[in-house]
């Protein structure tokens, strides 16, 4: 297969590039590098079957040559990233998704949308099943992300029903692992960098809110399984083992061996109090389930954060497409 991955220089996208290249697929990675890093593609760029194009998908999307599948991951993804870029986030979910779908349609390609557990908002149903419609504040701060993904799901579904595009939607739950940005503001990267740097661990609110953390290798395997299937979804991809934020802080302190103090901060507005995926559909339709538990995944992630040297993205780019739109970044 020749697979186009938007957002391929990011955390999940770069692991997907590597997973597909490993099994012999050709990969075209499109990213505007607003949050992604060329460093994530170091391994991929050594492979002659890999091509990188710097391009803002909200401005248009075209690539030379055949395309058998499109995986659309381009979007600001961590809460601090999307809260700082409200308009870019809405544009990525709407115009970006439209351009990616149009390209898939032109090529007769399979289209995979990377949606999110955030479509469930602050869930009243627990664990979250795919038939739950969600509980989202449409004018709250997180709405720029949640509603953009909900719109992207609707647009994807309409392309399937009205235009016959072969589409699949996955709803990804909190995923962690090597190549997370140390400054992305997510809880796993924050706690690890804080502990390793000798800083206080910042727990927002009481720390009693829960999340279910999936290791990135498991998640990448799920994305590949969805690309290979003709399943329309939506399908939840996540690890159903549920932890409080306080439990996560304790685990990171124990595993880094750093007795970092815990500082409590205000809970962000509309922060979901609990989240856990029901994965029966993924097991049934994709034969997928996660196999890496939190302790093992954290060990790999802590080791990676502890040993990485940092490699600024200074290498020249092969190709440059549409540049990023001039939308304001807040804060
Ligand atoms: P990330 O920020 O590491 O990657 C996103 C990538 O998209 C970045 O490389 C960024 O530069 C790129 N991008 C953003 N806007 C773009 C645009 N307009 N044009 C081209 N490239 C653009 O985030 P991630 O964690 O790898 O998330 C990837 C996808 O998975 C996102 O769509 C996100 O919503 C979804 N997701 C991730 C998680 C998670 O836990 N990591 C959970 C749910 C959903
Ligand atoms: N969180 C925290 N301290 C941090 C970062 C996040 O306590 O330094 C909390 C956050 O309020 C949320 C949970 O950890 O309840 C997961 O946050 P993250 O940003 O990783 O992802 P979310 O699931 O909110 O999108």
Sheet with the most strands, sense and barrel status: 8 strands, parallel
User: Strand pairing plus helix content: what structural class?
Assistant: alpha/beta
Total helical segments? 10
CATH superfamily: NAD(P)-binding Rossmann-like Domain
Series of H and E elements: EHEHEEHHEHEEHEEEHEEHEHHE
Q: Uncertain runs with pLDDT below 50, 5 residues or more?
A: 309-316
CATH architecture: 3-Layer(aba) Sandwich
**Highest CATH level, the class:** Alpha Beta
Quickly count the domains. 1
Number of strands: 14
Ligand set: nicotinamide-adenine-dinucleotide, uridine-5'-diphosphate
Question: Per CATH, what is the topology?
Answer: Rossmann fold
Gap from first CA to last CA: 41 Å
**Percentage of residues in helical conformation:** 25-40%
Strand content: 15-25%
* Outline type: globular
Give the radius of gyration. Answer: 19 Å
In what order do the strands lie side by side in the largest sheet? 11-6-5-4-1-2-3-14
Overall mean confidence score, pLDDT? 95
């Amino acid at each position: 297969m020749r697979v186009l991955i938007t957002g391929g220089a990011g955390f999940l996208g770069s692991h997907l590039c590597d997973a597909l290249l490993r099994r012999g697929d050709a990969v075209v990675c499109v990213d505007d590098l607003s949050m992604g890093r060329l460093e994530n593609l170091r391994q991929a760029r050594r492979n002659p079957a890999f091509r990188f194009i710097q391009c803002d998908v909200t401005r248009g999307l075209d690539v030379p040559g055949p395309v058998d599948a499109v995986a659309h991951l381009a979007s600001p993804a961590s809460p601090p990233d999307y809260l700082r870029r409200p308009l870019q986030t809405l544009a990525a979910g709407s115009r970006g998704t439209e351009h990616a779908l149009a390209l898939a349609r032109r090529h007769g390609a399979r289209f995979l949308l990377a949606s999110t557990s955030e479509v469930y908002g602050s869930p009243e149903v627990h664990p979250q099943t795919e038939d739950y419609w969600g509980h989202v504040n449409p004018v709250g701060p997180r709405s720029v992300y949640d509603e953009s993904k909900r719109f992207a799901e609707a647009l994807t579904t309409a392309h399937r029903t009205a235009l016959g595009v072969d589409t699949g939607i996955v709803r990804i739950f909190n995923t962690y692992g090597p190549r997370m940005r140390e400054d992305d503001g997510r809880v796993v990267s924050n706690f690890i960098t804080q502990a390793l740097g000798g800083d206080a661990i910042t727990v927002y609110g009481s720390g009693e809110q829960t999340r279910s953390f999936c290791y990135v290798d498991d998640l990448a395997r799920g994305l590949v399984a969805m690309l290979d299937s003709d399943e329309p979804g939506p399908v939840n991809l996540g690890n159903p083992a549920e932890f409080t934020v306080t439990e996560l802080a304790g685990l990171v302190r124990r595993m880094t061996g750093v007795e970092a103090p815990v500082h409590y901060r205000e809970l962000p507005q509309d922060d979901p109090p609990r989240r856990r995926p029901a994965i029966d559909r993924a097991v049934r339709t994709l034969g997928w389930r996660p196999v890496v538990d939190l302790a093992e995944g954290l060990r790999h992630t802590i080791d990676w954060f502890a040993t990485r040297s940092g490699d600024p993205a200074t290498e020249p780019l092969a190709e440059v497409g549409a540049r990023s739109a001039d939308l304001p970044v807040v804060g």
